[in-house]
Write a structure and sequence with these properties.
Strands 1-2 form a two-stranded antiparallel sheet. The relative contact order is 0.14. It has a single domain, classed as Winged helix-like DNA-binding domain superfamily/Winged helix DNA-binding domain (Arc Repressor Mutant, subunit A), CATH 1.10.10.10. 50% of the residues lie in helices and 6% in strands. Strand 1 and strand 2 form a beta hairpin. It has 6 helices and 2 strands. GO terms for molecular function: DNA-binding transcription factor activity.
Length: 141
């Protein structure tokens, strides 16, 4: 699965921090309905990727350290998971058993097309654009 629950929680954690300022783990998790045990794990990965800064000590917390104008959903998802593929058959080097001779697997071909479109869409919009759209629009139908 491409967008796992962990990636969804990461999107939400970044959204909570995008307002500026510092938040602690409890504030982030309560604000975005993230289980605390996932919150720690996700914020650690976001920190390793340079998207979030950890502020240690009394009164510590987390702060967004990436530029929202140049950070995309694909950047956030990539910080959480090494494998961002719809299916294993779209990974480079996968040898589909349904490829025989000069006949290629039609499902693989279609999934590869969809993967490219999905990657392009996730890469096309900055975090700033997404947050502005979130403020201005009603939920999708």
């Amino acid at each position: 699965m491409f967008i796992t629950r962990e990636i969804d929680y990461a999107f939400r954690a970044v959204r909570a921090l995008a307002g500026g300022g510092k938040l602690n783990i409890k504030q982030i998790c309560e604000r975005e309905s993230i289980p605390t045990e996932f919150g720690y794990k996700i914020l650690k990965k976001l920190s390793r990727a340079g998207l979030v800064t950890v502020i240690r000590g009394q009164g510590g917390g987390y702060r967004l350290s990436c530029d929202p104008d140049h950070t995309t959903l694909l950047d956030i998802a990539s910080a959480i998971s090494d494998s961002l593929f719809l299916n294993e058959c779209v990974e480079n080097g996968y040898d589909c058993i349904n490829n025989t001779g000069d006949r290629k697997c039609m499902v693989n071909r279609e999934l590869c097309r969809i993967q490219k479109v999905l990657d392009a869409e996730l890469r096309a919009h900055s975090l700033t654009e997404i947050l502005q759209a979130d403020d201005q629009q009603t939920p999708a139908e």
